Amino acid sequence: MSNTSKSPLADLERSLEAAFFRKVDFELLEKLRLRMANDQALERLAADTGIHNQQVLQELLDLNFTPHNLLALWLVPLTQVAWADGRVMPAEREAVLNSLRKHGYAEDSPAWRLLESWLDYKPCDEVLTAWKNYAQAVVQTAGQEKLLPLRSELLDRAREVAEAAGGVFGFGSVSKTEETILHQIEDALRPESDV
């Protein structure tokens, strides 16, 4: 009778080795799945925005922007104006939300909820940087015939927010801080040929 049984230690070694490689395979497959999902999201965002700058698109995805809430990013300057004096006044809040209403967004839409959260809590610097990069990509991508109305509309709405809280006795004055932000918005949306 030959002793063909394997040692329990060898069986354990093979079992641990198989488990290790299953884990490595799973991790590699998960990375591949995430990469493919990211690539598909980049393609959708590029198709919806017309922007093909991969760095800008990746930055937007990293901050969880999608075609469903991208309008909120476009309206970030309105929140900047609303926060210019350190707090958002009720009239400023309403002016910002009216911009969403004018675009036909419902109060339960992702863009609405995101913009509303920025009125409750000032957007972080990464969001402001993402807006500037997005604005520059729009400037580079859109032709003058598309850019001028977009720029004009955003500046008009930002000015409405600045004037919403009113100055002395509620007459639409704009603070120096708000005026500075309005100029920054205008500059960010200026084609390089206008600089």
Structure in a nutshell:
The chain is mostly helical and 195 residues long.
Task: Explain what the structure shows.
By secondary structure, this protein is mainly α. 71% of the residues lie in helices and 0% in strands. The protein folds into two domains: 49 residues; 141 residues, TerB-like. The radius of gyration is 25 Å and the shape is elongated.
Number of strands: 0
Class from helix and strand fractions: mainly alpha
CATH topology of the largest domain: TerB-like
pLDDT averaged over residues: 81
List the quaternary state of the chains. single chain
- Our Rg estimate from Cα atoms comes to 25 Å
Second rung of CATH, namely the architecture of the largest domain: Orthogonal Bundle
Helix percent band: over 70%
| Secondary-structure element order, N to C | HHHHHHHHH
Please count the helical segments: 9
Shape: elongated
User: How many structural units, i.e. domains?
Assistant: 2
The termini sit apart by 93 Å
User: How big a fraction of the residues is strand?
Assistant: under 5%
Low-confidence segments = none
Largest sheet: none
Q: What is the CATH level 1 assignment of the largest domain?
A: Mainly Alpha
List strands and helices in order, with pairings.
Elements: H1 8-49, H2 54-62, H3 70-74, H4 76-83, H5 90-102, H6 110-120, H7 125-141, H8 144-164, H9 176-188
Which labels suit this protein?
195 residues, mainly alpha, TerB-like, 2 domains, 9 helices
